[in-house]
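Handout, section B. The chain below has 316 residues.
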Amino acid sequence: MRVLITGITGFAGSHLADYCLERGGVEVHGTIRWRSRTENIEHLGDRITLHECDLRDASSTRDVVDSVAPDYIFHLAAQSFVPTSWRAPSESLTTNVLGQLNIFEAVRKTGAKCRIQLACSSEEYGMVHENEVPITEDNPLRPLSPYAVSKVSQDLLGYQYFMSYGMDVVRTRGFNHTGPRRGPVFVCSDFAKQIVDIEQGRRKPFISVGNLEAKRDFTDVRDTVKAYYLALEKGKPGEVYNICQEKTWAIQEVLDLLLGMTDAKIEVKVDEARLRPSDVPILLGDCSRFRNDTGWKPTIPFEQTLGDIMDYWRGR
């Protein structure tokens, strides 16, 4: 089995590469840009093959797809940080939508016979009403950020290419996933790194937070990437699937769990700069469709995930 992972140096991409190698019998290729930071995959050494490629460039993307001739493409590369999409909406839309379009056209024009997994997002659901929880895949999409709009575009573009060209696309709407190697701009990793910095004397004893009332459905990234693989192994072409734990934690609960993992005395301060122009109040998913089609279920408890994030930052 030959797989191509776009965004292999990223958080989920690096864990997916780990999982593919652990399975055995999988030849792993990944796309990188010349300025990509590679610390997430340094431990993989020469067990993977890297290809320099900017997905926003059509010829570069086509060359990689042609040379790798993958059986599976996992499309994970994206501008994935919601606050950045407010500050740079054009860049977020261009990177996410044009990059995916170039992959589709590369597959179509090279005649590659492959399945494609699109890492879409629960942020697409946006404004969810109380009577719509838990969220199924049939829920209306009401995106509340430029990032979410870009993911809706990717999602529907995948459906369009499936319908128009019969392209073997499976869309996954991942709810929040976290774990070791998560960048410090994302909430669980951000809180954990601030706490570790306080423990190690690099920061004054207070932690900066944003909206603590939002509720999110968190899954360990190591469970999430198994779901990505199963999506192509057992998922139906053209289908869309929620990937989630089916349980929510308020951000306040996340903070409390992490503070319970340290002996440091820490003050909590709200930072107005961390508040968004509009925020999704609750994301609680229903993944019964995916579970029924693939048999997947998450196995790693959230408390273990948070402990592993703390250990990751302490180790760095």
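Note. The longest helix spans residues 89-110. Compare this with the example in section A.
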